[in-house]
Amino acid sequence: MKLMVNGTALDIASARTVQELLGELKLAGKGAIVELNQEILDKSQHAETRLADGDKIEIVHFVGGG
């Protein structure tokens, strides 16, 4: 399945939900905010929201530092 993630085209084979995509991108549990096709998803929706070919996803995650 082809997805546009943060402006980059990715070919994702295994992820079927937003939660699985975050896991594949090593962002699971890191406080990520996800926008799917211009709609911000609540974190409680990540496990149940299915992805489709051509979806556009923006992910913002927080990075600590000093």
UniProtKB/TrEMBL annotation:
<dbReference type="InterPro" id="IPR016155">
    <property type="entry name" value="Mopterin_synth/thiamin_S_b"/>
</dbReference>
<dbReference type="InterPro" id="IPR003749">
    <property type="entry name" value="ThiS/MoaD-like"/>
</dbReference>
<dbReference type="InterPro" id="IPR010035">
    <property type="entry name" value="Thi_S"/>
</dbReference>
<dbReference type="InterPro" id="IPR012675">
    <property type="entry name" value="Beta-grasp_dom_sf"/>
</dbReference>
<dbReference type="Pfam" id="PF02597">
    <property type="entry name" value="ThiS"/>
</dbReference>
<protein>
    <submittedName>
        <fullName>Sulfur carrier protein ThiS</fullName>
    </submittedName>
</protein>
